[in-house]
User: What shape does this take?
Amino acid sequence: MSKKVLVISSSPRVGGNSDVLADAFIKGAKESGHQVEKVNLAGKTIEFCRGCFVCQTTQRCVIRDDADQITQKMQDADVLVFATPIYYYEMSGQLKTMLDRGNPLYTTNYKFRDIYFLSAAAEDEESVPNRAVSGVEGWIECFSNAKLAGTVFAGGVTDKGDIKNHPSLEVAYEMGKAIN
Assistant: This one.
């Protein structure tokens, strides 16, 4: 059965290492017959959450910017994929801000069940993405019907293009292909 997959790439460098990792996941998902849409946060206007909680009754943010539109796409997706560079052992600020702005989803009949997390960093120790994964798990905790379905980490990639031939690309591709 074909699923609607939304990939949110938060790298400020379009074509950066985490963005290429997202593309590998997308390739696998498309080959398995899924409908995939990719949203790059680079160049988007995404204001910070104001903490007003109006969205908890209206199910829509009062701020009308790109995050409002992306949140609507998130609600309708069966699968969410977050791709981020790791900065200072955490997800990018762009992704964290987008997750905060996903607050209107909390009271909706959101469709997503499986969430994947892809990350890339200059550091290559296995523990590097742990804090970022924990942050995403905290967000997922608020959505009782959703779960973290998989993670992929590409370590040791600094400059744009360093990820070429990295083994994580095959892992991401296979993960995308295995969506069911």
